[in-house]
Amino acid sequence: MALTIIPLNLDSAFPPSQPHCRCSSGRTALGTKTLVSSINVQQTTRSLSDELLSLLLQKASTSKPDNNLDDEINSLVRRLISSKSSFDPKDCIDGPLFTTIHFIGDTPLWEKIAIGNVRNVKGQRYTLLDNTSGNFVNYAEIWGQNLYLKAVGKFVEKGSVASLNTEVGDVSSSNNPLDVLTSFFSKDHDRNKPTPFDYEAIVSGASIVLFGKYTLNVDIEGTGTVRVLYADPSLRIFLSPTDTEVTRGAGHWESAGLIVVQVKNDLVYDDWSDHTMEE
Q1: Tell me: the pLDDT tens digits for 182-235?
Q2: Residues 125-160, buried b or exposed e (16+ Cβ, 10 A)?
Q3: Which of 78, 89, 111, 155 has the largest count of CB atoms under 10 Å?
Q4: Which domains, and CATH codes, for the chain?
Protein backbone atom coordinates (compact mmCIF):
# COMPACT_ATOMS: atom_id res chain seq x y z
CA MET A 1 0.00 0.00 0.00
CA ALA A 2 1.48 3.27 -1.09
CA LEU A 3 1.69 6.04 1.50
CA THR A 4 0.89 9.47 0.15
CA ILE A 5 2.29 12.40 2.09
CA ILE A 6 0.18 15.55 1.83
CA PRO A 7 2.11 18.67 2.81
CA LEU A 8 0.34 20.86 5.36
CA ASN A 9 -0.12 24.50 4.47
CA LEU A 10 0.01 26.05 7.94
CA ASP A 11 -0.52 29.51 6.50
CA SER A 12 -3.92 28.53 5.12
CA ALA A 13 -4.88 26.54 8.20
CA PHE A 14 -4.05 29.38 10.58
CA PRO A 15 -4.40 32.70 8.80
CA PRO A 16 -2.50 35.61 10.33
CA SER A 17 -4.43 37.04 13.22
CA GLN A 18 -5.58 40.60 12.89
CA PRO A 19 -4.22 42.99 15.52
CA HIS A 20 -6.82 43.54 18.24
CA CYS A 21 -8.04 47.11 18.21
CA ARG A 22 -10.51 48.41 20.77
CA CYS A 23 -11.76 51.66 19.40
CA SER A 24 -13.67 54.04 21.62
CA SER A 25 -16.50 56.07 20.29
CA GLY A 26 -15.91 59.76 19.76
CA ARG A 27 -18.33 60.56 22.58
CA THR A 28 -16.43 58.37 25.04
CA ALA A 29 -13.12 60.00 24.13
CA LEU A 30 -14.69 63.44 24.49
CA GLY A 31 -16.23 62.43 27.81
CA THR A 32 -12.88 61.27 29.16
CA LYS A 33 -11.25 64.52 28.05
CA THR A 34 -14.01 66.56 29.73
CA LEU A 35 -13.64 64.54 32.93
CA VAL A 36 -9.88 65.09 33.06
CA SER A 37 -10.32 68.79 32.27
CA SER A 38 -12.91 69.20 35.05
CA ILE A 39 -10.65 67.50 37.58
CA ASN A 40 -7.70 69.69 36.56
CA VAL A 41 -9.78 72.87 36.92
CA GLN A 42 -10.97 71.80 40.38
CA GLN A 43 -7.42 71.01 41.48
CA THR A 44 -6.16 74.36 40.18
CA THR A 45 -8.94 76.27 41.93
CA ARG A 46 -8.30 74.43 45.21
CA SER A 47 -4.59 75.20 44.93
CA LEU A 48 -5.30 78.91 44.38
CA SER A 49 -7.72 78.95 47.33
CA ASP A 50 -5.19 77.27 49.63
CA GLU A 51 -2.48 79.73 48.60
CA LEU A 52 -4.79 82.72 49.12
CA LEU A 53 -5.91 81.41 52.52
CA SER A 54 -2.27 81.11 53.62
CA LEU A 55 -1.54 84.73 52.63
CA LEU A 56 -4.71 86.01 54.31
CA LEU A 57 -3.78 84.27 57.57
CA GLN A 58 -0.33 85.81 57.27
CA LYS A 59 -1.88 89.27 56.84
CA ALA A 60 -4.21 88.75 59.81
CA SER A 61 -1.25 87.87 62.05
CA THR A 62 0.54 91.19 61.52
CA SER A 63 -0.53 94.76 62.20
CA LYS A 64 1.94 96.37 59.80
CA PRO A 65 0.85 97.18 56.23
CA ASP A 66 2.66 95.17 53.57
CA ASN A 67 2.11 96.39 50.00
CA ASN A 68 3.89 93.38 48.47
CA LEU A 69 1.66 90.99 50.41
CA ASP A 70 -1.44 92.94 49.35
CA ASP A 71 -0.34 92.75 45.70
CA GLU A 72 0.03 88.96 45.95
CA ILE A 73 -3.41 88.69 47.55
CA ASN A 74 -4.98 90.90 44.87
CA SER A 75 -3.49 88.72 42.13
CA LEU A 76 -4.89 85.51 43.64
CA VAL A 77 -8.28 87.16 44.23
CA ARG A 78 -8.50 88.09 40.54
CA ARG A 79 -7.57 84.55 39.47
CA LEU A 80 -10.17 82.96 41.73
CA ILE A 81 -12.84 85.36 40.48
CA SER A 82 -11.89 84.48 36.89
CA SER A 83 -12.35 80.76 37.65
CA LYS A 84 -16.14 81.35 37.91
CA SER A 85 -16.42 78.38 40.25
CA SER A 86 -19.85 77.28 41.44
CA PHE A 87 -20.64 77.06 45.16
CA ASP A 88 -23.05 75.26 47.46
CA PRO A 89 -24.76 77.81 49.78
CA LYS A 90 -25.19 75.20 52.51
CA ASP A 91 -21.43 74.59 52.65
CA CYS A 92 -20.08 78.03 51.72
CA ILE A 93 -22.61 80.67 52.87
CA ASP A 94 -24.54 79.17 55.79
CA GLY A 95 -22.55 78.89 59.00
CA PRO A 96 -20.50 80.84 61.55
CA LEU A 97 -18.94 84.28 61.31
CA PHE A 98 -16.56 84.88 58.41
CA THR A 99 -14.17 87.72 59.24
CA THR A 100 -13.05 90.27 56.65
CA ILE A 101 -9.26 90.21 56.25
CA HIS A 102 -8.80 92.12 53.00
CA PHE A 103 -10.75 94.52 50.81
CA ILE A 104 -10.22 96.17 47.43
CA GLY A 105 -11.80 99.59 46.81
CA ASP A 106 -12.72 102.68 48.81
CA THR A 107 -12.41 102.23 52.58
CA PRO A 108 -15.92 101.39 53.87
CA LEU A 109 -17.50 103.05 56.90
CA TRP A 110 -17.33 99.85 58.96
CA GLU A 111 -13.52 99.93 58.59
CA LYS A 112 -13.20 103.61 59.52
CA ILE A 113 -15.07 103.37 62.83
CA ALA A 114 -12.43 101.14 64.48
CA ILE A 115 -10.46 102.85 67.26
CA GLY A 116 -7.74 101.94 69.75
CA ASN A 117 -4.67 99.74 69.47
CA VAL A 118 -6.69 96.53 69.80
CA ARG A 119 -7.83 93.76 67.51
CA ASN A 120 -11.09 94.71 65.82
CA VAL A 121 -12.92 91.82 64.18
CA LYS A 122 -15.33 92.59 61.36
CA GLY A 123 -17.40 90.21 59.30
CA GLN A 124 -20.71 88.59 58.49
CA ARG A 125 -22.69 85.54 59.47
CA TYR A 126 -25.37 84.07 57.19
CA THR A 127 -27.97 81.55 58.36
CA LEU A 128 -30.06 79.79 55.72
CA LEU A 129 -33.70 79.21 56.63
CA ASP A 130 -34.50 77.46 53.34
CA ASN A 131 -32.83 76.98 49.97
CA THR A 132 -33.17 80.61 48.86
CA SER A 133 -33.30 82.90 51.92
CA GLY A 134 -32.25 83.41 55.51
CA ASN A 135 -30.99 85.81 58.18
CA PHE A 136 -27.69 87.66 58.40
CA VAL A 137 -25.65 89.55 60.98
CA ASN A 138 -23.15 92.26 60.03
CA TYR A 139 -20.62 92.60 62.84
CA ALA A 140 -17.99 95.32 63.37
CA GLU A 141 -15.89 95.83 66.48
CA ILE A 142 -15.14 99.47 67.26
CA TRP A 143 -12.95 98.85 70.32
CA GLY A 144 -12.55 95.10 70.44
CA GLN A 145 -15.36 93.15 72.10
CA ASN A 146 -15.71 96.04 74.55
CA LEU A 147 -17.62 98.08 71.97
CA TYR A 148 -19.13 96.75 68.77
CA LEU A 149 -21.84 97.41 66.20
CA LYS A 150 -24.20 94.72 64.98
CA ALA A 151 -26.75 95.03 62.15
CA VAL A 152 -29.32 92.33 61.42
CA GLY A 153 -31.67 91.57 58.58
CA LYS A 154 -32.77 89.08 55.96
CA PHE A 155 -31.30 88.03 52.64
CA VAL A 156 -32.98 86.46 49.65
CA GLU A 157 -31.65 84.90 46.48
CA LYS A 158 -31.82 87.09 43.36
CA GLY A 159 -30.04 84.75 40.95
CA SER A 160 -27.11 84.41 38.61
CA VAL A 161 -25.76 87.58 37.04
CA ALA A 162 -25.03 85.88 33.75
CA SER A 163 -27.82 84.48 31.59
CA LEU A 164 -27.18 80.76 31.53
CA ASN A 165 -28.02 78.55 28.59
CA THR A 166 -29.94 75.68 30.17
CA GLU A 167 -30.98 73.95 26.98
CA VAL A 168 -29.70 70.40 26.81
CA GLY A 169 -29.76 68.41 23.58
CA ASP A 170 -30.92 64.81 23.35
CA VAL A 171 -28.25 62.42 24.50
CA SER A 172 -28.56 58.74 23.71
CA SER A 173 -28.18 56.35 26.60
CA SER A 174 -24.89 54.57 27.14
CA ASN A 175 -23.61 51.75 29.29
CA ASN A 176 -20.18 53.34 29.50
CA PRO A 177 -19.51 54.25 33.18
CA LEU A 178 -17.24 57.11 32.07
CA ASP A 179 -20.30 58.88 30.68
CA VAL A 180 -21.82 58.93 34.17
CA LEU A 181 -18.64 60.38 35.68
CA THR A 182 -18.37 62.95 32.92
CA SER A 183 -21.95 64.03 33.51
CA PHE A 184 -21.24 64.36 37.23
CA PHE A 185 -18.25 66.65 36.72
CA SER A 186 -19.59 68.66 33.77
CA LYS A 187 -22.91 69.58 35.40
CA ASP A 188 -23.37 71.26 38.76
CA HIS A 189 -25.69 69.72 41.29
CA ASP A 190 -29.08 71.44 41.43
CA ARG A 191 -28.20 73.16 44.71
CA ASN A 192 -24.93 74.62 43.37
CA LYS A 193 -24.95 78.25 42.26
CA PRO A 194 -22.85 79.70 39.43
CA THR A 195 -20.75 82.78 40.05
CA PRO A 196 -21.23 85.67 39.98
CA PHE A 197 -24.45 85.21 41.98
CA ASP A 198 -26.54 87.88 43.72
CA TYR A 199 -28.39 88.02 47.02
CA GLU A 200 -30.50 90.96 48.18
CA ALA A 201 -29.78 92.00 51.78
CA ILE A 202 -32.45 93.91 53.71
CA VAL A 203 -31.28 95.53 56.97
CA SER A 204 -34.04 95.72 59.58
CA GLY A 205 -32.20 96.97 62.67
CA ALA A 206 -28.92 97.49 64.49
CA SER A 207 -27.47 97.82 67.96
CA ILE A 208 -24.35 99.19 69.64
CA VAL A 209 -23.12 97.08 72.57
CA LEU A 210 -20.77 98.32 75.32
CA PHE A 211 -18.90 95.87 77.59
CA GLY A 212 -21.36 93.15 76.62
CA LYS A 213 -23.92 94.64 79.04
CA TYR A 214 -25.28 97.90 77.72
CA THR A 215 -27.15 97.90 74.43
CA LEU A 216 -28.32 100.87 72.41
CA ASN A 217 -30.77 99.87 69.69
CA VAL A 218 -30.49 101.88 66.48
CA ASP A 219 -33.53 102.26 64.24
CA ILE A 220 -32.15 101.83 60.72
CA GLU A 221 -33.33 100.33 57.45
CA GLY A 222 -31.54 99.69 54.20
CA THR A 223 -31.16 97.45 51.18
CA GLY A 224 -28.07 96.29 49.34
CA THR A 225 -26.83 93.61 46.97
CA VAL A 226 -24.28 90.98 47.95
CA ARG A 227 -22.62 89.49 44.87
CA VAL A 228 -20.78 86.21 45.43
CA LEU A 229 -17.68 86.10 43.21
CA TYR A 230 -16.15 83.03 44.85
CA ALA A 231 -17.00 80.87 47.86
CA ASP A 232 -15.75 77.67 49.48
CA PRO A 233 -16.05 76.37 53.07
CA SER A 234 -12.97 78.34 54.22
CA LEU A 235 -13.06 81.65 52.37
CA ARG A 236 -15.30 83.75 50.17
CA ILE A 237 -15.10 86.84 47.98
CA PHE A 238 -18.01 89.30 47.85
CA LEU A 239 -18.65 92.38 45.73
CA SER A 240 -20.94 95.35 46.37
CA PRO A 241 -22.12 96.11 42.80
CA THR A 242 -23.94 99.28 43.92
CA ASP A 243 -23.60 101.81 46.73
CA THR A 244 -25.01 100.39 49.96
CA GLU A 245 -27.09 103.03 51.72
CA VAL A 246 -29.37 102.92 54.71
CA THR A 247 -32.62 104.81 54.25
CA ARG A 248 -32.97 105.74 57.89
CA GLY A 249 -30.58 106.13 60.81
CA ALA A 250 -27.18 106.27 59.08
CA GLY A 251 -25.46 107.19 55.85
CA HIS A 252 -23.13 105.79 53.24
CA TRP A 253 -22.04 102.28 54.36
CA GLU A 254 -20.16 100.89 51.33
CA SER A 255 -19.22 102.19 47.87
CA ALA A 256 -20.01 100.46 44.59
CA GLY A 257 -17.19 98.20 43.44
CA LEU A 258 -15.97 97.27 46.93
CA ILE A 259 -14.57 93.71 47.04
CA VAL A 260 -14.21 92.02 50.44
CA VAL A 261 -12.34 88.80 51.16
CA GLN A 262 -13.53 86.86 54.20
CA VAL A 263 -12.14 83.84 56.05
CA LYS A 264 -13.95 81.50 58.43
CA ASN A 265 -13.31 83.20 61.75
CA ASP A 266 -12.10 80.21 63.78
CA LEU A 267 -9.30 79.68 61.24
CA VAL A 268 -8.06 83.19 62.04
CA TYR A 269 -8.85 83.84 65.72
CA ASP A 270 -9.23 80.63 67.70
CA ASP A 271 -9.53 82.63 70.96
CA TRP A 272 -12.44 84.78 69.80
CA SER A 273 -15.74 84.30 71.64
CA ASP A 274 -18.83 84.14 69.44
CA HIS A 275 -21.31 85.03 72.21
CA THR A 276 -21.51 88.51 70.66
CA MET A 277 -23.25 86.99 67.64
CA GLU A 278 -26.27 85.89 69.66
CA GLU A 279 -29.36 87.74 68.55
Answers
A1: 344 444 456 899 999 999 999 999 999 999 999 999 988 888 899 999 999 999
A2: bbebeeeeebebbbbbbbbebebbbbbbbebebeee
A3: 155
A4: 86-160+194-277 (2.40.128)
